[in-house]
Write a structure and sequence with these properties.
elongated; 6-stranded antiparallel β-sheet; two-stranded antiparallel ribbon; alpha+beta; about 30% strand; SH3 type barrels
């Protein structure tokens, strides 16, 4: 089942192919077309689907108690000052779209980061990459300070 990111309709793979039947590129196209509004989005890569399933299966009460049992204090990413280093521990948001965005950016638990700036947006150094986040995404990340 798929959900249209524009209108929110939940539809199946067969329903997604119906509007594209008249298109000559139908057999080689990787776009998914919403049967309700016609909005087209590319298919999600298999590695991203696997990662989402892995993350959903990882969210068990046992994993949550392991994080809670550590004596190291955790805080929201927005509480860090520029220059501070931290490790991502978990997400505080239950919103599926927010979680997908963070995973797509590679901001997974266990990733080490450094805050470069916090205004006008949060700029993070992750490895050799710099990632900009808005306030909502940054607030959804729970980190543990790394000295």
């Amino acid at each position: 089942m798929r959900i249209c990111s524009l209108c929110g309709l939940e539809f199946s793979e067969g329903e997604a192919r119906r509007p594209c039947q008249s298109c000559p590129l139908d057999s080689n196209c990787n776009l998914v077309c919403c049967p309700n509004c016609g909005y087209q989005t590319p298919e999600e890569p298999q590695w991203l689907i696997w990662l989402q399933r892995w993350w959903q299966n990882r969210k068990t009460p046992q994993a949550a108690s392991t994080v809670a049992s550590t004596n190291v204090s955790t805080q929201a990413l927005i509480m860090l000052n520029p220059g501070e280093r931290a490790e991502i521990v978990e997400y505080s948001s239950a919103d599926d779209m927010t979680l997908r965005r963070l995973m797509a950016l590679g901001l997974l638990p266990g990733v080490h980061l450094r805050v470069l700036r916090d205004f006008p947006c949060y700029l993070l150094q992750v490895g050799h990459a710099q990632i900009a986040l808005d306030q909502q995404l940054a607030a959804a990340i729970i980190v543990r300070s790394a000295s």
